[in-house]
Amino acid sequence: MNKLKERRFYLLIILIVLALDKATKLVIQAVFSADPHRTIVVIQDFLNIIYTENRGAIWGLFQRHSQVITLVSCLALVLIFVYFFKIPRECRLELLAFSLLCGGALGNILDRLIQGYVVDFVDMVFGRFHWATYNLADSAITIGITLLIVSLVFNRCPQPNPKSKAVNHASDTD
């Protein structure tokens, strides 16, 4: 069966994550265009909406190396996408995880390539702890990584045994 047809549901997830990420960033940019330094309080002392242009990685690290971050992100996305097509179709959790990773990575990479920065806007505070500002793409990446960890911990998707394939193939020719 054609791998693209086999994975069309997961490719749709990638496109949905990408579309939602881009739509939320466009809305945030429009809302904050008049006053980019304002804060919208959603839940007092917990959740705010702000506008930031992140030219670095998480927490704004490596801002002077944004081109390197973009290059590394693109290479990582290619590797993730290649592996996405190697995952057996029975491994639904892993396919979902890689779909979320791809959609999120694409959203942030497109921002970097088009604008030179990633728009972040979700601002969370827990008492004295202030989390790094993030966006929908970052959330999709985090959920995807979490699902992969769950898969590894519970060994949800067994890897094919190359020796058993060779034996089966040899017995088919007899």
Detailed description of the structure:
The protein has helices at 3-6, 8-32, 66-84, 92-115, 136-154, 162-172; strands at residues 40-43, 47-54, 118-126, 129-130. The chain has 6 helices and 4 strands; from the N terminus they run ααββααββαα.
Provide the low-confidence segments as ranges: 164-174
The main sheet comes to: 4 strands, antiparallel
Work out the radius of gyration.
Answer: 20 Å
Strand order of the largest sheet: 1-2-3-4
Q: Tell me the number of structural domains.
A: 1
Structural class: alpha+beta
Task: Sketch the topology as an H/E string, one letter per element.
Answer: HHEEHHEEHH
- What is the overall number of helices? 6
Q: How much helix is in the residues? A: 55-70%
* Outline: globular
Distance, first to last CA: 25 Å
Topology:
Blueprint: H1 3-6, H2 8-32, E1 40-43, E2 47-54, H3 66-84, H4 92-115, E3 118-126, E4 129-130, H5 136-154, H6 162-172
Antiparallel strand pairs: 1-2, 2-3, 3-4
Helix pairs in contact: 2-4, 3-4, 4-5
TL;DR of this structure?
This protein is α+β, with helices and mostly antiparallel strands. Helix content is 59%, strand content 13%.
Labels describing this entry:
single chain, 174 residues, alpha+beta, 4-stranded antiparallel beta sheet, 6 helices, 4 strands, disordered C terminus
